[in-house]
Amino acid sequence: MSKKKNTPWICLLLLLLSDLLIISSFAHEKPKIFIVHVSKSNKPSIFKTHLDWYISTLQSLPSSPLTSSFGDHLNRPSREIIYTYNHAIHGFAARLTPSQASHLRSLHGIVSISPEHTHRIYTTRTPQFLGLNDHSGLWRISKHGEDVIIGVIDSGIWPERQSFNDSGYSPVPERWKGICETGPDFPETSCNRKIIGARVYYKGYEEAMGMPVDADGTESRSPRDTHGHGTHCASIAAGSAVSNVGFRKFAVGVAKGMATKSRIAAYKVSWTFGIVTSDVIAGIDQAVADGVDIISLSLGPGQSMKYYDDSIAIAAFGAMQKGILVSCAAGNNGPAPMSIDNLAPWMLNVGASTIDREFPADLVLGDGQIFAGASLYSGDPLNQQSGAYVEVVYSLRNKTDRYCSGGSLNSTHVSDKIVVCYVGYDTNAADQGTAVKSAGGVGMILIDQNEGELRARSYPIPATEVSLSSGSKIIEYMNKQYSNGQRPTAIIKFRGMVTGSCSSSAPRVASLSSRGPSQVVPEILKPDVIAPGINILAAWTGFGADPANSEEFNIISGSSMACPHVSGLAALLRSAYPKWSPAAIKSALMTTAYNIDNSGRYITDFATNNFSTPFQHGSGHVNPNKALNPGLVYDISPSDYEAFLCSIGYNAEQMSLFAKDKKVDCESIKSSSPGDLNYPSFSVVFGKTEKFKYKRVLTNVGSSVNAVYNVRIRGRTSFFKISVSPTKLVFTKDKTSLPYEITFESKLEIPATEKKEAFGSIDWYDGEHVVRSPIALSWGITNSTNFISSF
């Protein structure tokens, strides 16, 4: 009897649980508003009006499982037209589920679909992605980096850009000692209260090239930027707010640098055919003399050198001694391991990450396959009128020129076709597109030769860039068509810009971003942090174009873009804490960095789609507002760095490169290991030794002088053991800095017979702050005394 009475309740409970599971499974299918762009001329003749066509098209889409299963009391209906557009654009806005929108993209006459976004006055896009806002946090406390001076060592600056407007700025700080170096194209008025100094260095370059820099008219012997790179980096670091700007129709909004009130001093050292060390060192040297607070260095040697052979590292050491933080790019040699540049521990090394913004342009093949691509093409879509697919061809019949270089294409072969090209090491996408267009081609598929993030580029013809794996499948399709006596076809569907939850998970480590471990001293973990570096909008040069028609902003990618993001954040921290050392600022940025993306998962590596490690992301992704209140910092003095150099065996002559006139007696310094440097991260190399004990000192910079921090160790323990002593740090008014020891013990055979890596972290926490340091452990590689010799 009791079973019979309870059966209806059990059935009802099971039914309710089933309903909840269905609701959960379709949560990602919640309808939202999408903007649908159509080709008006593609309206089938059976429809009297465009509205009739739109309604019929939407009704042909599959119904939403959520609304069809549970009715409108849970969600408003999908497939409902909200607006129709007939003037500014052609199309309509409709409430659709993501899967319906995806299905709609494949239908005839649909040009592109983009999700609707909440609009506000904000940058295009990285300050918002980084959590910066005018009402609280680092921007407000630092007064936007007011009066901090950032020296940008790069290709110069284009001073007329709005990003360098000085409206509302106070007078130039009295401590500034620099000048505005003028020239025929760079009058004295080029400098203002924003660009407070500008200089140019070319003597080393001219010596190396054996000709004047302006011999062919493509360069300027002034600080004027003829390339764009320096202007881009300067505006990322400290560009003033500029409203309603973007690159053509993309990324339109309010463009801002990281430290909008900081001053810029531009030092031009970069030229068409390269950069020479002598010019770079001259720029750094003068920046120190002029009185900059931060140096932003988006360049590097392109190879790993011992510190005493690296003149830039030596110059950066001198800047550090003067209290100047040097922020530098990690390099664009990823995803290969041990590819990282600028390895000195006194330099802040920045790798590149993605942000939650993409510029999708899908490639649809004639057999229905769809491949994700990226593009900044802003003209009319290919075959906008008819929507018909276009024949696809290789760049040459014999496929010997994969790169579509100028003059190599046969007009008879490529005319009225979409041409397949490859990204080369030094190819320019716009030049490739021009070559295709000149030969009569009507579109281009650009295949990257690496896996990873897709960099959006500007093209003169309809074009999209796809990944290497997608390219292989496209080639496979083409070969199959040819073998069957048929012609391969495709069409490119441009989807504009997507941001936020509609984009891929972010941040992710960019595949181009150079990786550790360090080839010089593997006990120093590099990179230090990652920051936005892919598809970044910032100011650009006006050289070589009609000033009335030149693009004021551009979107480009690289660790060069990540570096000035962190340079600007460092300027904000310098403004908030003017007495902090470069190492303290660096520590705050590192120990507060995060490792969870916007989907709630660990940050992934775009090159492998696996979780990234500290050798790819360092301490993690910068978190500006957290860095404002780090709780504790790992401070490092110049003498600490000298002890570090002694620990790696530098002799008196080598030491003098860094200590200058100061004599350092390495025999009297008790630092026994490079791992004892008071660095905010740990890298342990097990060779012949199975146990290491490193020392660290933490300094309380929190608001409370009385603070108690406990330790937490994270990481797998199957083949290593980590212990910390003491496990509690009690800070008082009289004890603002406290030491601890951390011991790493290997459970594997020593020496290791094969290369192995493991990772973890050590956290000090007090209930308000978490001071986190990543840990990387390696087996099967040599230690710092002979590590570089094998490369």
From TrEMBL:
Alphabetized Pfam families for the sequence: fn3_6 (PF17766), Inhibitor_I9 (PF05922), PA (PF02225), Peptidase_S8 (PF00082)
Active-site residues (renumbered): 154, 229, 560
PANTHER family: PROPROTEIN CONVERTASE SUBTILISIN/KEXIN
The keyword 4Fe-4S is assigned to this record: no
UniProt superkingdom: Eukaryota
Full protein name: Uncharacterized protein
Domain (Subtilisin-like protease fibronectin type-III) ranges: 676-776
Family that this chain belongs to: Belongs to the peptidase S8 family.
GO molecular function, one term: serine-type endopeptidase activity
Keywords: Glycoprotein, Hydrolase, Protease, Secreted, Serine protease, Signal
GO BP terms: proteolysis
Residue span(s) of domain PA: 391-473
Extent of the signal sequence: 1-27
InterPro entries found in the cross-reference section: PA_domain, Peptidase_S8/S53_dom, Peptidase_S8/S53_dom_sf, Peptidase_S8_His-AS, Peptidase_S8_subtilisin-rel, Peptidases_S8_3, S8pro/Inhibitor_I9, S8pro/Inhibitor_I9_sf
UniProt-annotated location(s): Secreted
Annotated GO CC locations: extracellular region
Domain Inhibitor I9: 34-120
Peptidase S8/S53 domain residues: 145-601
Species in which this protein is naturally found: Papaver atlanticum
